Amino acid sequence: MSAEGTGAPPSGAPALQEKPQTTTTTPAPAKTPAAASSTPEAPKLTAAQQKAKAKAEKAARRAQVKEAKAAPVVAAPVAAGKGKGGGKQDAASSGGGGSQPQKPSHHRPSMSGGRRPSVVAATILKETRSSIPECFRHVPMAKRVPTSAAHKDVHPAVLAVGQQMATFAIKDSIARLEATLLAFRRVIESYETPKGNSLSRHFVPHVLNPQIEYLTECRPMCFAMGNAIRLLKTQVNKFDIDTPEDEAKEGLLETIDLFIRERISLAEFVIARNAARLINDGDVVLTYGRHRLVEKTFLRAKENGKTFGVSIIDDPYDNGGQALAKTLHAAGIRVFYSPNLGGLRANVERASNVLLGAEAIFANGSLQAPAGTADVAMVATNVNKKVVALCETINFDRERVAVDSLTYNEIDPGRNTAESFRLMFDNTRDRYISG
Q: Which of 132, 190, 215, 249 has the fewest C-beta atoms under 10 angstroms from its C-beta?
């Protein structure tokens, strides 16, 4: 009868709330059945435990509904630009008491502990690419990656550049290269080598690589960016393990400044100067779309006092030729504008020569340029017109070759529907390029 001696109330309240009795008493016979019947029953939960259990059950029901409707629910926060979906669910899931079993969580995992893409970004990318035929799904495409899904070590300047690349606010290869290098410059300035490490061994794997991975997730890396990053990593590896941090950082900053000055600014000046010499008085030079080197060449030729006309065949999906036409017209250059490739042969026959801008040049001499460039080059070659391509050496790829437009390309995210999609670049064989 030791259980009876505890004095447990028949109402089932927890025995811990009362002090145990030190003296044994014999209960009245009327209370004996009640005490005996209360022994096999489970103890009732406290108010806090009941509240925690209700929250856990509610969170489990939410998770089941959310899992059944995964696609629309996950994509909604990102489309609205929030980037932090699932916060309320997390709070509900973690509200249970310590004695209650936790329900499995279905919210998006954080990127702070690793470098794997988030569930949100992966879901959006899967939905966006679902309409692309499987034989073309190897071709990458730019996408907006929520900043909350980035690696914890990604610098704010790199986050901003990545978002601008994903939305094509920064579009051409040289502009992307320059923005990337300037962002890396800020990364280097704010870097401090952890105690017990050296910059030559710690900076690249733990600091630089997360920046590169984030930019690549936002938009596939162009050839100029790849070449510049290899040169920067080579410079880091040249530092001795005992090189002082300040000296190493100063060397990296000087390398970036020198690179921008020589491989971008000076290269543009020299290319525009040399290409302007190919334009003679009375010429009508045909170009496709808008390219920064071609535009600088026309303006340089005008500064040299030459009188000529420019025939612009525009990319109907980009309409960059409109901006080029306005710039050249404001500079006093005669402009002929065509909004698309219709009547291409007639326009090419009227031109004296053709000047094209390139995105990259491969080891076999083929040219990667905005889609439509190959059509212009082939027609010009067929009517015996000289075709000159302008490209910085930083955009040369001396190791890889390309014989089609599918090996190295991008899908235009703005022209990707259930019925069709558009490749951003095409490949022009070297036999269609005069110089």
A: 190
